[in-house]
């Protein structure tokens, strides 16, 4: 950072570490994120192109890369610096169901705005399509079954019968359909779950972070947040604030939430992240009750 941006001098502390990036905080004001692998570098390239195009119109604060660093001194990927957003991740806040329910409308409003970005602007911002088949059901249905079985075998979760039924219902309803990006696609955060939501000291939603998976695709990829984060009793308020969501999209979002959480839960256990593990189990409870 100092070799790329001479203005940065002072305190540099480790901030966080994820699957794709490691982050450092500079003078408690800036966050610099560094890819840990090529996939992370590819994702960062996407957010560097897209976020400046949409930051001003979003209903909640999002990171906006203001410093772009080039590979140097043995580090081989570009990196980016963002002004630090206030708040803490929702998974660190021990939120009540009441606090979560209060976020249904602002969260839906945020997604309605994001998903309304005109397709021409997506092309101009160079947003990529879904390169990873997030809703390629021929791949994701057996993957979810396998992950859920491993979760059971490792004693990480009990009472999963309803989760098995979600998989079966998805298979009956959609078969092995591959939901791909196309002209009717919308701009997506792409990895919207509890760890990427910011809340303030009273538990109100105050930002959305970590946009490395930004792309254009089917809305269900983002709408999964309603199933994974919100109590089922707040789903109606979410849908009213977002606007029309057809039943197929809503059920597909439910499956996407399950597929995503079957990856998050064992990961949280493997790195002893108790707050994320608690949230993943909470998601499974919501899905089982839905």
State the gist of this model.
This protein has 290 residues and is an alpha+beta fold.
Alpha carbon gyration radius: 19 Å
Named at the architecture level, the CATH assignment of the largest domain is Alpha-Beta Complex
What is the ordering of alpha helices and beta strands? EEEHEEEHHHHHEEEEHHHH
Proportion of beta-strand residues: 5-15%
Please outline the major beta sheet.
5 strands, antiparallel
Helical stretch tally: 10
CATH homolog superfamily of the largest domain: Aminoglycoside phosphotransferase (APH), C-terminal lobe
Strand elements, count: 10
Cα-to-Cα separation, first versus last residue: 47 Å
Mean pLDDT: 92
CATH class call of the largest domain: Alpha Beta
Unreliable residue runs = none
Q: What's the assembly state of these chains?
A: single chain
Overall 3D geometry? globular
The domain count comes to: 2
Specify the helix fraction band.
Answer: 40-55%
| CATH topology group of the largest domain | Aminoglycoside 3'-phosphotransferase, Chain: A, domain 2
Strand order of the largest sheet: 1-2-3-5-4
- Helix/strand/pairing category: alpha+beta
Describe this structure in words.
The protein has two domains: 12-83, Phosphorylase Kinase, domain 1; 88-289, Aminoglycoside phosphotransferase (APH), C-terminal lobe (Aminoglycoside 3'-phosphotransferase, Chain: A, domain 2), CATH 3.90.1200. 44% of the residues lie in helices and 15% in strands. It is built from ten helices and ten strands. A hairpin with a 3-residue loop joins strand 2 and strand 3. Helix 5 packs antiparallel against helix 6 (161-174) and helix 6 (161-174) crosses helix 9 (247-270). The termini are far apart. The mean pLDDT is 92.
